[in-house]
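Notes on consecutive records. When two proteins share a document, each keeps its own sequence and its own token line. Never mix them. Below: protein one.
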Amino acid sequence: MSYLEFDFTRAIELLESAYAEYRDAGDQMGAVRAARTLAGLYTAIVGDTAVAAGWASRGLTLLADTPDSSEAGWIALNKGMIESGRARKNELFREALDAGRRLGDPELEFAALAYLGASLVQADRIEEGMLLLDEALAAVAGGDVDDFCVLEEIFCQLFAACEHVQDVARAEQWIRVGEAIAERRKLPAVSAFCHTHYGAVLTTAGRWPEAEEALSEAVRLWSLGRRAALREEALVRLADLRVRQGRFEEAEQLLEDISMEADVGAARPLASVHLARGRTELARDILKQALSRIDPLSTAAGPLLSLLVDVDLASGRPDEAQATVDALVACAASHPDQDSLRASAALARGHVCLATHAGDPQACLREALAGFARAHMPVELARSRLELAQALLSQHPEVALAEAQASFDAFERLQAARDADAAAAVMRALGARPGTGRRSIGTLTRRESEVLELLGYGLSNPEISERLFISRKTVEHHVGSILAKLGLRSRAEAAAYAARTKQAAK
């Protein structure tokens, strides 16, 4: 209970007391369970790997005098979590998986399957790893996993893997399943599990209010857990969200105490802040340092190379920008199934073509549009539309205006004010006045505005839930909030209000 209430210190104290009591009572298996659970908590919550290894070893010693049991598999899983070598880590996860299957422990089996799948994805064996994760999640959906903590870990591994390869489509599909499970079993919403990775997925998906809520909660929870490194990971992702929102000062403050040596992930948001401030040399140095520490063909290199292209162009280095594009294209070619990487490479090629007045920027940017649409990445999709509008300005002004309007509308929905201003500037250059339809709603959040629009089309709560990939309970909450904010008495009045607002915006 203390663990579920996020009182991690108390949970550890109780387990240590339980271990002593089991040993005094001669209950070897009870002591083993307490030892391996402590190993897991010291790994995941505290981050003291030496202490975790000590408890894991204690559990193995106690198992020497007991019959074959799945506890050895759980200990192997714990050891795999703290193992730094990828080959040995996967070997331990496979050992745990085998024990779970051989001894009929489904919770161990599917927890190990999820950890192994996520580890393979991290090693860029993406298709193989995602297949294992999908199987583990299917087992959860099918009721094979009962333990709440194991269920949480399986979803967490899925979100971590999806974040690593920016697989928004897969994450959103399983989010829907998870929320349905949470509602059916009266559990905390699965969207609250593993807030750090989940928040990053929501950021990429353009669901920024939800991302902010998840990441803020992650910072709070990891502060309770005393694991500074995990709190920093949450802060880095929150800073990335702030950068996308154009709130650079806040992003810089979030990154102040984070060491680049400890977290390569901080490089992109920090370099983005420097680029926005015109400090291109600092941005370039940060990205170069980060890239020197990772495999240039790994999926992790893609976002860094993509930003480096922008930095190279902003600092007047078109030749180096082209070399960076070539590196990004090679990275994307190494992962042919990753729409987001291929789209990023196409966008970067288009950006360089525009800057150097060479090549076919329109073809590159249309390729980027298609890729980001498949990858469910609305921010990058809107930015590609804006680049395409600029490419079309002189030859096809009407088409350019349509693309600029579409990007402006998308940025308005996302509440990306800085990008919306850039799109508005292009529209004004074409003699058009940007509309302000969605901003007139005022007090509503982006998600509430979307729900209101769907109410205007006459959709029911279950239909809105399906359309927006959120639970019915969440839809009910949004409808209630809309009615309160707009002073309306019923969903019928809300539908009529939405229809009037839409007509007035035309």
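Protein two starts on the next line and is unrelated to protein one.
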Amino acid sequence: MLRTNAEAQPHMLVWRAILARAYCDTDQLAEARAQLDALRGGGFDYPPSQQWTSVIVALSLVVSDLQDRSAAAVLYERIRPIANQAEAFAVAVASQGAYGQFCGMLAACLGRWDDAEGHFTDALAMNERLGARPYVARTRRGWASMLLDRDAPGDRARAAELIAAGPEAEQLGMARELVRFERLLTRLNAG
């Protein structure tokens, strides 16, 4: 359905962005990269609209998964000014939590470790304050990944603490997050 909508409505960027995210979530990274490349043509300079948050959030996750530094640099500058806000989509009364989580993932992709850590710290606090348990789990996972990538003194111990909070994803039925937490645990144990 996503692929059909993306092809039938190329002007609706949200379909292509969500399709790229779905490809990442199912480990179809070449397909995700193709969708990202199709969206790259506009320089990721999307005007504010009802779709903006959905497009930017989906692209931030895709770019982080693909470790696309050039796209991360552009998207990070687009959302950094609103890092202390929470994403919400009013039409469906939905949210994906604090923008700081996505800023943290993009900053980590860029190797901007201090910025990433600051964003994850703020995002975790906001998501906990909002009672947004799924996004608390996702923020912890993103932060743990950043710590393992940076690998500074104390990072592995802190990552282990964040990974240990992974079972909350199981309680919430977040199957994809459980896979990602397992991958982090494998990385932690391999180091």
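For the record: The longest strand covers residues 94-98.
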